[in-house]
Amino acid sequence: MNNLVWPMLAMFMWTFLVSLRNLQVRVAALRAGQVHESYFELFSGHAPESVIKTGNHLRNLTEFPPLFYVVLVLAMTTGNSDGWYLGLAWLYVGFRILHSVVHLSFNKVKPRFSMFAMSQLILLALWTRLALQSAGGI
After folding, report:
1. C or N terminus of the chain, fewer CB within 10 Å?
2. 39-56 tens-digit pLDDT
């Protein structure tokens, strides 16, 4: 198995764990009477901060991370995967997890943005490396 599968699996598992947390928060809010089930039909109306925050974060994990999966699959299928990809992939996963921890706990914008920005730069580096390799530049 290609080593790049491991950071992809880790990213998937993290997203899955966040989805379970999202479900837990929603069920708890429903049981406590903090939100009516009709809120979840169109996601409009009043909901507790915890429901909004975990939902927003889960949605965030489905926006840019798919580009992470794609670039790693492309690196593997084109035979370009190497230690650089592996190192950058684990850094990406690490920064995404840190971003989640900040967002889902004390939720301060500056550290949260820093973690997100670092993950975006790493994603850009992965795609740049693939483009340069594909063009014969590396």
Report:
1. N
2. 999 998 899 999 999 999
The three-state DSSP-derived secondary structure of the chain is CCCCHHHHHHHHHHHHHHHHHHHHHHHHHHHCCCCCCCHHHHCCCCCCHHHHHHHHHHHHCCCCHHHHHHHHHHHHHCCCCCHHHHHHHHHHHHHHHHHHHHHHCCCCHHHHHHHHHHHHHHHHHHHHHHHHHHCCCC
Determine the residue type at 126.
L
pLDDT at 1 over 90: no
Tell me the two tokens of residue 100. 């989640």
Residue 49: phi and psi, rounded to 5, are -55, -40
Residue with tokens 């290609």: 2
d(CA 18, CA 66): 16
How far, rounded to the nearest angstrom, does the alpha carbon of residue 90 sit from its chain's CA centroid? Answer: 12
Residue 42 neighbours by CB distance under 10 Å: 7
Q: Which amino acid type is present at position 56?
A: N
pTM of the model: 0.94
